[in-house]
Structure to design on (207 residues):
């Protein structure tokens, strides 16, 4: 049984395992993962620090920061249940907003001749989110797992086997989503599969 969200008294009575799982879900949620990924790939692919900050900033802003800010605004106004969009119906409605924002970032990067790796990264994010949105019309696939696995796949493609270590974080994130009761094991595994397949295909083809 999980405690009511946002209730500190109930949170204190949670088993340590669930408190850790919730903390993992907060720290390694899609928004910070996408920001870090955008900046890492930007610094790898850009010729100067200034250009890396520009391209990484555009990608991070429109693929992560802006959609997340809109979610937080919706939560504060009572239009959304929580920042993880635990209700599938809300994920469906907000998915259109997120996809639009990501596509805007993709257009800006392409128009202003950003490095191919940056265009490939945002394109793979857009395809992944769009595929996740379609699946969510019928089934609540894990976005946490999909984004984490997708990021790990991109880092492996960019930096090679040395980045296999990040897959340990993917496993921890997958565990946390099941432990807090937001997803079943099948939904988490499907999210991992989606992240791997989309990013291994789209990013590899466009970079």
């Amino acid at each position: 049984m999980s405690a009511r969200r946002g209730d500190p008294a109930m949170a204190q009575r949670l088993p340590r395992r669930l408190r850790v799982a919730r903390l993992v879900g907060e720290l390694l949620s899609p928004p910070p993962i996408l920001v870090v990924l955008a900046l890492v790939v930007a610094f790898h692919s850009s010729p100067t620090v200034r250009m890396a900050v520009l391209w990484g900033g555009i990608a991070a802003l429109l693929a992560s920061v802006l959609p997340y800010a809109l979610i937080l605004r919706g939560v504060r106004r009572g239009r959304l249940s929580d920042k993880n969009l635990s209700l599938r119906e809300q994920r469906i409605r907000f998915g259109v907003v997120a996809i639009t924002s990501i596509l805007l970032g993709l257009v800006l990067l392409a128009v202003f001749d950003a490095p191919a790796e940056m265009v490939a990264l945002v394109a793979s994010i857009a395809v992944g989110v769009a595929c996740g949105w379609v699946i969510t019309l019928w089934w609540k696939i894990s976005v946490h797992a999909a984004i984490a696995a997708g990021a790990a796949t991109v880092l492996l493609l960019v930096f090679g086997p040395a980045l296999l270590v990040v897959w340990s974080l993917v496993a921890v994130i997958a565990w946390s989503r099941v432990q807090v009761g937001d997803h079943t094991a099948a939904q988490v595994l499907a999210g991992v599969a989606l992240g791997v397949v989309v990013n291994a295909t789209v990013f590899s083809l466009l970079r």
